[in-house]
Amino acid sequence: MEQLMQAQGTKMIVFWNTVNQQRNKDCLLKSCTGKSSMRLRKEKKRKNQRHYNRQQKKERLVQLNKHMYRIHQPLVQQKLTWKESTLWIGNFMKEPLFLTTN
Fold it and tell me: Cα–Cα distance between 51 and 44 in angstroms, integer?
């Protein structure tokens, strides 16, 4: 009977040790910010998403700038008047070429 109690006692000690280890890990994560591990993961995910969105935005702007440069370059070379150039750009925008990017 005493051996059985001792065996159960060691089982309980092992159980509580693992529980405490897990708690300590969580405490280590919390200690720097005071936030739970779940919340930290969510924040990291949000931060990564924001970074990705920012990169996409930059790439789109670069593509658009290249495209606008391609439209305006011939106008600058031809020295068109403002009215002519707006008509030219208007016609250019109607073409499906506007949707393609190099």
Answer: 11
Give the three-state DSSP class for 101: coil
Tokens of 69: 């440069």
Which of 13, 36, 39, 10 is closest to 23 using CA atoms?
Answer: 36
Task: Give residue-wise pLDDT tens across range 38-84.
Answer: 788 888 889 888 888 888 888 888 887 777 777 666 666 666 666 66
Specify the pTM.
0.33
- Largest Cα separation within the chain, whole Å, is 105
